Amino acid sequence: MRRFLSICLVLLASVLSFATSLNMTVNTDKSTCHVGDPVTISARAVVKEGSVVTFAFVKPQVTVNEDNTESLPVWEKGITTDEKLPDGYHLYRYSITVHPFQLGTLSLGKIKATAGGDTVEKKVPDVEVVSMFAGGKEKKTINPLKPQLEIKPDYSHLIRVVAVVLGGLLLLALLVFVIFRMLKRYRNRDRLAIEKKLPKIPPCEEVRELLGKLLASRYLKDGRIKDFYVELAEIGKRFLG
């Protein structure tokens, strides 16, 4: 019985020590990428409230070649955030982004997390950098692209413009017609006013004047009797209807 109790106490102590120890998970957002693509490394650690986790990123050892310095990866600045969890826990996150510029397997180094007196170090999973061409360096064919989206032309704006232009022309034509009618009426009014001002000649005086002109003509002297009677008939038609 005592032996069983001792085993239980040992197991309980192990569980408690594991629960209070610093645990950290490390991963990347992708396992394969192309040259220049961003690869984000993330680390997470959960601790009791009151403890503060500090992260340290250890870059991998890279042999620098003076003739090929452009192929070295570019590292951005790491960011640490924390979030309060229920039951008195805190979640600490650390992220850093790298841009690889060389084909092959890229080693991403390690991340160290320290909280109180505990320190945990974990290696970041490697990333395979591949060419954007299908088959790597051997083939020159580009990876198949997605089918292009078919966009139907939209003529609604053109229809609106044509409608506005036609409406403007119609209004302009209507305005010109109204102005023309007003000018015509104004001119007719002036002509009628002038005609009203002129005195009318009585019909008897007008007949007398026309007959005097006919008798003064040379129709009878020249023996043009027919022309004389034609003019006389015209005068008669004019006043006798």
Short note summarizing the structure:
The protein has 241 residues and is an alpha+beta fold. It is built from four helices and eleven strands. Helix 3 packs antiparallel against helix 4.
Describe this structure in words.
About 3% of the residues have low confidence. This protein folds into three domains: 108 residues, Immunoglobulin-like (Sandwich); 43 residues; 42 residues. A hairpin with a 3-residue loop joins strand 6 and strand 7. It is rod-shaped and about 170 Å long. It contains four helices and eleven strands. It is 38% helix and 27% strand. Helix 3 runs antiparallel to helix 4. The strands form three sheets. Strands 1, 3, 5, 6 and 7 form a five-stranded antiparallel beta sheet that branches. Strands 2-11-8 form a three-stranded mixed beta sheet, with no helix packed on it. A three-stranded antiparallel beta sheet has the order 4-9-10, with no helix packed on it. It is an alpha+beta fold and 241 residues long.
